[in-house]
Amino acid sequence: MDVEKLISTLSLTGADIPPRSTTRTAGKPKFVKFLSGDNGEGMPETFFEDPRTFKPKPGPHGQIQTWGIFPYHEDNIWDFDGIQMMYRTMAHQFSYDNRGGKPWPEKQFMEVLKDRKREQLSKLDLADLDKKDIIIKIHLKFLQDANGDPRVWRRVRLSAGMKIGVFQDKVLSPVLNWVRNLHCYTFTDLRDGAVFGPEDANATDIMHINQVGYDYLPDDKYMLAHLFSEVGDKFAHLYDYGDKWHHEIEIEKIFPLEESYGRVQILDGKGMCPGENMRGSYQYENFLKAYDTDSYTEQVKKRREILDCPNYKGFGKPPSLFNIDAFDIGQANERLVAALGSPNSVRAGMKAFTMPINPSAHDSRTGKLKKGQSIQREWDHESHGYWQETTSNTKDKRSQSACAACGKPGGQDLKTCSGCRAILYCSAEHQRSHWKDVHKKQCSRKYLKK
Ligand SMILES: [Zn+2]
Ligand SMILES: [Zn+2]
């Protein structure tokens, strides 16, 4: 971690420093091993326990967040000491994990928790749950209307067999109106606190990973069906490790096999998505409360603030026409169709805004590109910088795919578009209809015989 990042960590977490310490300064851990010079100072207390017998700690409502390793606030959100974590990182960053050295004690602990969960998942009998359609209600926590009901929510029908990562990228982001592939995120099984997230993610907020549970299982290997078992179950979604937007997803219905088709459908919803980078659930809760009692001029100013965010770039209307409590299902469907009709996002090259001192300067985030990947740059003339993202133009792995037309999760029987070989379909019928309605204009037809 370099100095610049540390300074930005300080300023990012400054407003959210918890009032009490959650760590202790010394003691003998039951399992993890320290390097000399470390006595565990700044390490959350849980890591002094034995991960092989560790029982995740539930919050005040019985839900378990972030592997159950942190204490909780009253609102069931976990408590961490960001400043202590940062000092600890600074103190030991050149010993642990370095030149083949011992992994961080925190990491030693998390590896055991992950192994235990992996083992449990490998023995789990889903009993065809992954072949069934479900109705879910996604809502943003803490944002409530005058009746105390969720103010921003979406109801969606889809297959429980969809991979968690594909769900985040091609359904949740477009349906809510978060920007695809911009920030890191997690999904949490609230029954045992197990966390799933994007492998290889490289957005800058990854530096706060310790604050959201230290580690996770890869979300492209597990399905939504791994996060719940029955109607009424809930799982959590955290978006952006810096801002921290807290979502909860409830299972409202599970369809029988004979009524399950796998098609993704937006059923209903309410409320506009908050603006990206508007500082997370708690800050936005206050923003909305103030908005409700603001004068008309103040309200228009606040709407403009939202519309200036990256996820409202395409709004195209004056702020006076922006209704904060409306949900435009037509626009949400357009975003969903576009997402389903494209390859999965490349997590190793997430979207980032860069203001180059020299426009041709080398971007240090750009790693080695894999086959079919390229770097897309989009200049933003207002901000004098550009958005950069790695994208793929080869088809998704079948195990991590969804039909480009309907969103049905992939299998070995998926058909490939013979024009671009970048898109997969569940049936010849969906390939035909998608060609006519959407793909004809997008297909590169690179491989079509003349
Ligand atoms: Zn299909
Ligand atoms: Zn094509």
**Total domains, how many?**
3
In CATH terms, the superfamily of the largest domain is MM3350-like
How widely separated are the two ends? 53 Å
The CATH level-2 architecture of the largest domain is identified as: Roll
The hetero compounds bound to this protein are: zinc ion
Q: What is the element string, with H for helices and E for strands? A: HHHEEHEEEEEEHHHEEEEEH
Percent of residues in helices comes to 10-25%
What does this structure look like?
This protein is of the alpha+beta class. It folds into 3 domains: 3-123, no CATH class; 129-280 and 327-332, Roll (Structural Genomics Hypothetical 15.5 Kd Protein In mrcA-pckA Intergenic Region, Chain A), CATH 3.10.290; 281-321, no CATH class. The chain is 23% helix and 16% strand. It is built from 8 helices and 13 strands. It has helices at residues 3-13, 82-92, 105-123, 164-176, 280-293, 296-307, 329-340, 428-437, and strands at 133-140, 153-159, 185-189, 195-197, 217-218, 234-239, 245-254, 265-270, 352-354, 373-380, 385-392, 415-416, 424-425. β6 (234-239) and β7 form a beta hairpin. The relative contact order is 0.10. Residues 417, 419-420, 423, 439, 443 line the site of one zinc ion. Residues 403-443 form the MYND-type domain. One of its GO terms (molecular function) is zinc ion binding. This is Unplaced genomic scaffold CY34scaffold_110, whole genome shotgun sequence. InterPro entries: MM3350-like_sf, Plasmid_pRiA4b_Orf3-like, Znf_MYND.
